[in-house]
Amino acid sequence: MERTCSMIGCNNTNDNLSADHFFQFPSDFDLCLTWVENCKTPQIFEDFVFGGALPCLKRFMCYHHFSTDDFVDPERINLGLKPSAVPHYFPLKQDQRWEECYIKDEVCCEDNDESWEDVIDNETNEVDNYIRTWTDPATTTTPNEEQQETKSRQKQKGNQSDEDPTLRKQKDALRAANRRKQETEEQKLLRRLKDKTRSATKRSNETEEERQLRRQKNALRAATRRKEETEEQREIRRLKDKARSALRRKNETNAQSQIRKYNDAVRAAFRRSQESPEEKMKRRIYDMLRAAKKRGNETPEQRQKRLKADRERAARRRSVIKVDPPTAEEPANKSTDSEPEKESSKQITDQMIEMIINKILS
């Protein structure tokens, strides 16, 4: 099996490295999310957004992107990684960090210490006297300019404070939330219009890489927000999504509609290929209930149109599928081979009918 490193900018494969030097993505959702964020590959991020950690299990990361603390035994890499190991782009090894910060010893001059101190004191005194006696008229400032300089210095000092960036962002968010609570409807509309104009201008000038990075951040933010939301918030979000999608479908062209349907079919096929038999049966029950509810609310014209489409579809299917007449030996063989299949299908249909009846009664 060919193994390729998933880190962006890394071209290591099992041709130039051993297979033991590649490590599979974790199956845990949160840890896999951290790996996907650090590898910075758009395709892997898109697969994770649509399929979770399951599509990423076929991806690998080479040992160059792990530090010595991430391995169970740094001298024997084939023993694997620690459970909390996280890859990085190009981590420094422990000996490299020590070599960079290590200083052997200080060098100082032991001879003529007093003479050097005297020379330095004399030079500093002469410079101080020169500065004290002479000032350049071009550098003299008025009181207003001094006030502006002090304000700018205070502003720079405030920007370069030792405050935690996350704490500062929280304070800014709280201040903005309080300001939005007190604004009127006109101020709200004006603010949203300015935000839309600013974002549209920024998006029109961004490159393809910036666009992909922005979409990755938006998808990650949405996934994190959906993970922490309650049932009521989920229902409200789904209602808003339905209204927004209905409005968008109403205004879309035929080409946009075909592209949307094709993408939906591909996504549904991928999701159905990964589901278990219980999930498949549950999905079919939901489809039957949804179809029954839709048929119960349709008008006579809609019913005639649906029945006509069903008849046309059945006639088209009959014209394509042609069954050869069975011979004398085939019925006996088919009856013996298909009895277990018939029993299993009968059991599945009985279970589906019971679940539908319980769903309707509840």
In brief, what are we looking at here?
The protein has helices spanning 29-39, 42-51, 94-101, 113-133, 143-159, 165-181, 185-204, 208-228, 231-251, 254-273, 277-296, 300-320, 330-361, and strands at residues 22-24, 60-62.
The average pLDDT is 76
Number of H/I helices: 13
Largest sheet: 2 strands, antiparallel
Radius of gyration: 35 Å
Assembly level: single chain
Structural class: mainly alpha
Q: Outline the low-pLDDT stretches.
A: 91-107, 110-114, 134-139, 332-337
Shape: extended
Strand order of the largest sheet: 1-2
Order of helices and strands: EHHEHHHHHHHHHHH
Terminal Cα span: 51 Å
Number of strands: 2
Percentage of residues in DSSP E strands: under 5%
Helix share, percent = 55-70%
How does this model look, in words?
It comes from Photinus pyralis (Common eastern firefly). Keywords: Cell cycle, Coiled coil, DNA-binding, Metal-binding, Nucleus, Transcription, Transcription regulation, Zinc, Zinc-finger. Belongs to the THAP1 family. Residues 165-189, 203-213, 225-252, 272-287, 295-313, 336-345 have a biased composition (Basic and acidic residues). Residues 127-351 are annotated as: Disordered. There is one protein chain. Among the domains are: 1-91, no CATH class; 252-317, no CATH class. The radius of gyration is 35 Å and the shape is extended. By secondary structure, it is an all-alpha fold. The protein contains 13 helices and two strands, in the order E-H-H-E-H-H-H-H-H-H-H-H-H-H-H. Mean pLDDT is 76; it is low at 91-107, 110-114, 134-139 and 332-337. The chain has a two-stranded antiparallel ribbon. The protein has helices at 29-39, 42-51, 94-101, 113-133, 143-159, 165-181, 185-204, 208-228, 231-251, 254-273, 277-296, 300-320, 330-361; strands at 22-24, 60-62.
